[in-house]
């Protein structure tokens, strides 16, 4: 298979994507377990992976990619639940590299984040060997956690076959790896993002001006949101900060021009294992004319739910079943969240058939809810408070920050850093000591140059489909639609709550938790072994952030209490202005990365370390309050 793939690559390198396409029917027939074109599979328990710089052809144009075993995406790894796997990663690059096994539950030193848990990364010319047991099944993926390598192609899919019968019935399966490719050097792109943000001044000043006007003149109800945003001349970068202007969106390494092709026989149940391996792109995924039954999210089975479209955040995975009966071809459409471009592929009974590609829909606009502001309540609330207001208006730039001002002054919040120096930890203690969540919230108003906005009225948006998908003529999946197929392994109520704010300053391209960039954070967020805690995330920014915790799944909390089939995920999109909660069982001692999975947001500082501290082993593991008390002791 590897040789075959090399041959295909060779054909493409000769300059003819069509030549590669011509190989498809034969290739597709030779695939046994995995009948797929574009990503070859490796299976077994021992794997040799080598990272290199390779020439790669994207839509007929030559680029420099980081590949694994010469491939982009990296090879599909097929594992079996219950096996111990050994993976040798050799570094053929001229810089350090790494592989993080996304969503895989494993010992922390095998998690592959350089600088954490004793893993130092893999130096050029060296080989690192990963070894771990497989305690789960499902669809996952792997990628570099070094620098911006993920943007250059260093990612690949993983399928772990369940050791017991698979509850999902299907006749054929395809991995659908979504990604965003740029011919630009990612380091330059990142530098440009920081620089570009200066240009933001002008645009955002108009927003500030608008709110000043609104403060003076009253916030006319007649003014529609759309007109308002139009007047503020929003940049598409407010939806996605890297767009189709530089990106070519890929499915299994193929641009829209290549049109990756999957075959099916009418009547078959086809399982699509969708993985968003992008650096920065959230996708809206659909097959026009074909309903999808969602059967898995982030590798874990969910109660099947039928839908027509879903929004998939960076690093999330969804498995869906489609059941095409007709002898016709269907487009697989992955539109970027800002509608600046798309990836597409085709599911077809045979080669040579075509399927229409739907036009890109209108670019979505942000709403008042995205800004976490309630409508109409701002009329008199924004009378300029003299110089402080002015100062912030100059420093910040979104109307949003007006709220910050008000909040900061009215609650007389102290400068950031005093009570937020150890994010979460302190807050939670005060919450416990005073016996309520309100204290935690009272203390949790991140401010400072890294914070532009503050969600004034953050809302529960779990039952909303995702930015820009609000008013579709068809069904769109929401997180509230997801329930675990199996009972949750831990049904305890959380013992404590920890609230974290997602914060940012777009103009300076600073992204952070609780207003502190990773480089400024002095201590880890502490979890205690065995405790059950509720992590509440409040998005104070106007962007959607896919937030990922390493080492542990979290259970998505719906409003209904005592739900023992909460969907369990490794990554969750937090919408603009949203407040959502997940419950975590801290069962994995060690240091784990916790970050936004938008690559440049993570690099800009939206990352922290969660440290699960071992606790002395009393026998009272079952007692809910023991962790609690220990925690207070250790913190005081
Ligand atoms: Cu982010």
TrEMBL record:
Residues 58-164, 173-347, 493-614 form the Plastocyanin-like domain. The keyword Membrane does not apply. Keywords: Copper, Metal-binding, Oxidoreductase, Signal. One of its GO terms (molecular function) is oxidoreductase activity. It comes from the Bacteria. Coiled coil: none annotated. This is Copper resistance system multicopper oxidase.
